[in-house]
Automatic annotation (TrEMBL):
Matches recorded under PANTHER family: V-TYPE PROTON ATPASE SUBUNIT A (PTHR11629:SF63), VACUOLAR PROTON ATPASES (PTHR11629)
Entry superkingdom: Bacteria
One MF term in the entry's GO annotations: ATPase binding
One of the protein's GO biological processes: vacuolar acidification
GO-annotated cellular components: proton-transporting V-type ATPase, V0 domain; vacuolar proton-transporting V-type ATPase complex
Main subcellular localisation: membrane
Protein name: V/A-type H+-transporting ATPase subunit I
Amino acid sequence: MSIATLKKLTLIGEINEKSAIMEQFQTFGLAHLITLSEQTLDQSTDATIYLREALSYLMSAPFKRRTQIPSESIELSEVIDRVIKNKHDREDVIDEIELITARQKELSVWGDFEFPPLDELNQYRVWLYLVPLSKEALLKKVEIPWKIINKDHKSIYLVVISVDEPDAEQVPFPRAHIGPNSLSCLAKLKNEALVRLEDLNAERQSLTRWIMPLTLSLNDTINAHELKLAEQLVLNSGDFFVLQSWLPDESRPAFEAWAQGLPVAFQLDAPAANELPPTLLKNDNIMGGGEEAVSFFQLPGYRSWDPSIVIFFSFLLFFSMIMADAGYALVLGGILLICWQKLSGSETTIRIRNLWLALVAAAFAYGVLVGSYFGITPSDGTLLSRLHVINMNDFSSMMKLSIGAGVLHLVIANSMVAWGRRASLVALSSVGWVLSIVGAFALWLSYMRVTDLDVAATFSLKVVIAGIVLILLFSGERKLDSVKNSCLQLFDGFTALYGLSKAFGDVLSYMRLFALGLSSASLAVTFNDLAVEARDSVSAGGFILFALIIVLGHGLNFVLGVMSGVIHGLRLNLLEFYNWGVKGEGYPFKAFKKRGE
């Protein structure tokens, strides 16, 4: 639950051993490479395009053979060619079937017929026209032979016989182009195409037995490509090459063991003040869900702090306050139980699963505290009623709870910034924000308790003033070695004070916790009341209406509660909190390692 300490590794080896050492360094797989060479990197990935395409096509097959290593001695390039050919042939057949289906729809209104040979009609041809119903009267002006063969609510389907195509004056209607094939012929062609599609699907299913060899081949191809790119990052200097990378301090013993016996010399140094190493977050899988949110939104800088644990617990609190129902929490837990096995693959999915489990537990606990079970409040005297200690309808208390959560959130953010800057006087500006926010909150609480409060005499106002003074004096980072710099430092302080309105707005943003939680609870109660009224007012089928309103109403409220909890819970963490607590942005630590190991 911190940012890993990194060391700068400088490794020197002989140029003739470069390829072998780089390959072993890739196997070591714990370091982030630093670019030393100025040459243009070859970013081409053509070597894997067709392999990726073939593997993606087989992985998306609805039916697969069991995972295996086939005993057939066939070159994988030949397998890839067969897969790509199957894909293209299958796409062509699907397009043909869709085209035939569309043509059948167009032709169905004309009927199942075939054009007669020209010699049977004495070189006369059959021409087909679509006549809008609104222009039916114009048919009287058509002098050449014609006949209506069909009619619907929009058009008249007209057949005209003529040696040459009639011009617009002879037949003033748009001509219909239906092609040379009849409905019977189209049905035969479609059936043949469906048979070919079945054969191609069967071949595709058979080819899925090559998924594992292709995956291993993809890993080898990517590893070789990344090794080639990594060799371009290394600096060649005469008979030697120089490699630099960032190495986690905890991996130092493993690296020293790896380097033993290799013809290399190395040195490990702490990052210089002007260097910006990558950010490597260290969180266990239990609370790693906060790290996933941080990595998705914005990584903190290397010299900042890891907000993952704060975001984890605050997200649990915010989600619980928005959902505000123990019954809905149990439904969410049931969905998690169904998806449990599917979320046991990668480290990321395991972290998401653990976060989901924590959300269920927190939402259930908060739902018990507010005494809501699908909108039903437990009866007095029961165990559940004794656990009901938070009254959602006490607007004053809920407002204090929501704003208090926001104040605590921003206080933690500014406190961590102050701790990170503890070696500089600038840290006092963050302390000033803590004092201003806490003092203003305490002053508001006092005002809520006392009708005619003497604000000037309160200790809270003195705390706010002290905080403002600290913000005014220490927000700038200038050296106070001249009158000009001192004035500019004071100007920086006045500029920073504009953040007071921002702090006020951000704290009020946490009111959404109360508003959304109250709306969710109110909707649950409303649906229950509607269901009971429908049951009691309808003699026949009342229970059906009751069940429908309960299922659909609570289902909608549950979905809205989950969506609101996720969206607004993350918003308060990743916008309001992040703006105050995380200064600067980092870039991720990417270990140079072999894929698939």
